[in-house]
Design brief:
256 residues, mainly alpha, 9 helices, 0% strand
Length: 256
Amino acid sequence: MGVVLWGAVAVLVAVVVALAGQSLVARLVPLHIRVSDNTAFGTIYAALYVLYALSLAFALFTVWGEYREAQRTTDTEADTVADLHHLAKQFPEPERHQIQDLTHSYAQAVIAKEWPLLGQGLASRRSPQAQALADELVETVEDFEPTTSAEQTHYTQALTLVQDFDDARELRLLESHQGIPTIMWVVLLVGGVLTISFTFFFGMESTWLHRTSIASLTVLVVLILFTINRIEYPFTGDIRVTPADFESALHRMEGD
C-alpha cells in the first residue's frame, strides 16, 4: 500500500472517530450547557492549541532537518569516494590500483548490500562487506608513504578525503536509526487527541458547521502526524533517501 493510500486511510479513520466522538458528546451534554460554557472552554482551548501547534511545528522541523541532513551526508560520502577514486590516478602502483578498486567495490557494496539493510529498519544497518572495504580503504591511504613532494601533496589531499569519507559514513549509519524520542510521540499523540476532543464541547447552533470544523482540524492534525512518521527515519519507508548519489559516483568512477 502506497504512502498516499496509507495517509488517506489514516485521515478517514481519524475523521470517523472524531465525528463519532462529537455525536456522543452532543447526546450526553445538552446544547444550552455547551453554549453557556463556550467562553470558559475557549480560554482553555486557546492555550491548548497554541502549545500543541508549537509541539507539532517543532517535531516537523526536527524530522525534516534530519531528513535533509541525511541527504547531505549521503552526498558527501558518495562524493568523497568518487574524489578518492579520481585522485588515486596520481598515486604510484600498487596504491593506485588498490584505492581505485576499493572505492569502486565500496560504492557497489553500499548500493547492493548496505542500502537494503537501511530500508528494512534492521537493528544492524552496517553491511560487513561495506565496512570491511571502508576500513581497508582508510588503511590503504593512511599507510601510503610518499617519496616525492608531489606524492606528499596528493597524500595530504587523500588523507583529508578519507577522513571526510569515514566521518560521513559513520554519520549516515547513525542517522539511519535516530528518530523522535518516545516521549515526544506521547506528547504529539496525546496532544492531538486532547486538541481535537476539546472541540466536541463547544456549543454551536449549526451541527454541520461544527462537524465540518472538527473534520477539518482532524485532517490537518493527522496529515502532519503522518508526515512526521513517514520521514522520521530518512532511510526507511516510501519517503526516503535513495542511493542515487552512490549510483552517480559509481558512474563517475567507471568513466575515469
